[in-house]
Amino acid sequence: MQNNQYPFIIIGGGISGMTAAIYLKRAGHDVLILEKEIPGGQINRTAEIENYPGFLQIDGPSFAMNVYGQVQKLEIPMVFENVVDVKKEGDIHVITNNKEYLCKKLIIATGRVPRKLELEHEEKYIGHGISYCALCDGVFFKDKTVAVVGSGNSALEEALYLTKLCKKIIMLNRSEKFKGSQILFEKLKSSHNVEFLYQTQVIALHGNEEKLTGLEIMKENRTSTLPIDGLFVYIGSVPNTSFLINTGVELDHNFIVVDQNMRTNIDGIYACGDCVKKEVYQLTTAVGDGATAATTAEKEA
User: Fold this and answer.
1) What is the mean pLDDT of the chain?
2) In terms of C-beta distances under 8 Å and separation of at least 24 residues, what long-range contacts does 56-65 make, across chains too?
3) What average pLDDT score do residues 24-49 get?
4) What is the C-alpha separation between 207 and 127, in angstroms, rounded?
5) What's the pLDDT band for 46 if we cut at 50, 70, 90?
6) Which residues of the chain form beta strands (DSSP E)?
7) Which of 97, 86, 77, 92 is closest to 36 using CA atoms?
8) Contacts of 236 (CB under 8 A, 6+ apart)
9) What single-letter DSSP state applies at residue 294?
10) 293 phi and psi, to 5 degrees?
11) C-alpha to C-alpha distance for 198 and 219, rounded to whole angstroms
12) Which of 49, 147, 189, 271 is 20 to 30 Å from the Cα of 173, by its Cα?
């Protein structure tokens, strides 16, 4: 076997992708994982996991490293390169920023990336006051005032983590109530250093050449300036599927359309995890998707 040719390639080293790799390797197949960042994907941004069976509580990075440990024990190669294109010309060609790989069966497990506010200067202040990961960047805002935008579980979970570090957390919600878990909301509400602003929208970012210094917000058709040291954004995420433009894989709002066995409309290409069109996006479903995709691909090899 050539070093760029595998019977199975998995794009994405998140939990779903690593699960698929484990199942394929244990079935006796050679498999390559291509990952552009770090093993585990988005779960590394999660401070606490309390709803995964078998763990009363575990942080995201530890969970990710546990799964990656299984990948390493099975000697499954994970190459850290960014996939930029996929073509099917007999074999499936997977093109990265560094190399071209060939395979017979491809599993796409590229997950999602955080949705941005799409405001002027947002890119400028990423890493200079704006973050999409409290676990990654919270320590830089110790004893400072930050705002959290969002109303789902991610916003609530990350805000809870920030309560241990920051002097004050201001929750900015466009709606009248939070969409996330009531348990998480009650925990957050009981924190002494959290303020809630409802029906509030961020409409502009303020800062200097070095960092973000405040927000312009709109509440009840009135605008005002909110001085802050940092902004954490949790307004959802978008599927990481732009590299599929040349494959003919069917997409629905950029999510990959699959059947119940994780097949796409293209023979030999499967998908699993948060990049697929489905009803429930959870760690448990990501694992199940990965196992299903691998089992289907293995049967059809």
Assistant:
1) 95
2) 59/135, 60/135, 61/135, 63/15, 63/283, 64/15, 64/38, 64/39, 64/40, 65/39, 65/40
3) 93
4) 13
5) confident
6) 5-11, 31-34, 78-79, 83-89, 91-96, 100-108, 112-114, 130-131, 145-149, 168-172, 194-197, 200-207, 212-219, 222-227, 230-233, 237-239, 251-252, 255-256, 269-271
7) 97
8) 114, 115, 150, 152
9) H
10) -60, -45
11) 8
12) 49
Structural domains of the chain, with CATH: 5-113+237-299 (3.50.50.60), 122-233 (3.50.50.60)
Confirm if 17 and 288 have CB atoms less than 8 A apart.
no
Q: What stretch of H or E contains 159? A: helix 153-162
Q: Is residue 237 pLDDT above 60, yes or no?
A: yes
β-partners of residue 88 are: 92
**Burial (0-12, 13-18, 19+ Cβ within 10 Å), 221:** exposed
| CB 88 within 8 Å of CB 251 | no
- The Cα–Cα gap between 38 and 277 comes to 24
| Residue 283 main-chain phi, psi, to 5 deg | -60, -40
What pLDDT sits at residue 136?
A: 87
- Phi then psi for residue 191, to 5 deg, are -75, 140
The identity of residue 182, as a single letter, is Q
Q: Model's pTM, two decimal places? A: 0.85
User: Which structure tokens are listed for 249?
Assistant: 């894989």
- Residue % of the chain over a pLDDT of 70: 99
Angle in degrees, CA 113, 118, 123, rounded to 5: 75
Question: Residue 9 has which token pair?
Answer: 């390639």
The confidence band for 255, taking pLDDT boundaries of 50, 70 and 90, is very high
Cα–Cα distance between 293 and 301 in angstroms, integer?
Answer: 12
Residue 231 one-letter amino acid: L
